[in-house]
Fold FadR/GntR family transcriptional regulator.
Amino acid sequence: MVRKRLSDRVADNIMTMISIEKRFFPGDKLPNENEFSEELSISRTTLREAIRILVTHGILEIRRGKGTYVKEEFEVNNIESLATFADVKINARDLYEMRLIFEPEAAYYATLRANEEELGRIIEYGKQIEQKILNNEDRTEVEQKFHNSIVKAAHNEFMEKLMPVIYEAIDKGVILSKKKELAIKDTINDHNMIMEFMKLRNAEGARSAMKIHILHAMAELGIE
């Protein structure tokens, strides 16, 4: 496996600060060179190289005499804009591994703790996803709402803080699955299985169903 240069890894870290940690938003100025290089424990030369990488990919811009900024027109939530950045840290495999670690447990606790209103919301979003798929419509937003409603029903504030990572994975998965009929079919079946276990208040079943759902997606999208 080819080892990344330090500047590439630093560019990945800055990208994470923008797209996942939401530390910097479009139009925001990055810390000055001395402060940022010290924070990242790197030389100013390495930081400059990393910034050049991100400038090349249209993520940052250098305003002469003012500093380095996240480009105003950079769309943080547009995963397709990130796809041009080949070395980006937030790739599909890493994101889905995070889902595999996190979401089955969220489904387990949501099944135990969800009130009837929360459970009804999860079921409704599941139905909307199926309808979007059958109508060949973009389901990204409602898919995010489905998984977010499960996490919220777990009533664990720290789980909720991980949702930006889950959103990135869902965005990527929807894009990759558009031309994969089996992945789309399994999405419907897996969601129905998760919802059935949740309606029965079978927490172990919901945990297993969520794990199966994510493993199906990883296998069918070729990101195992």
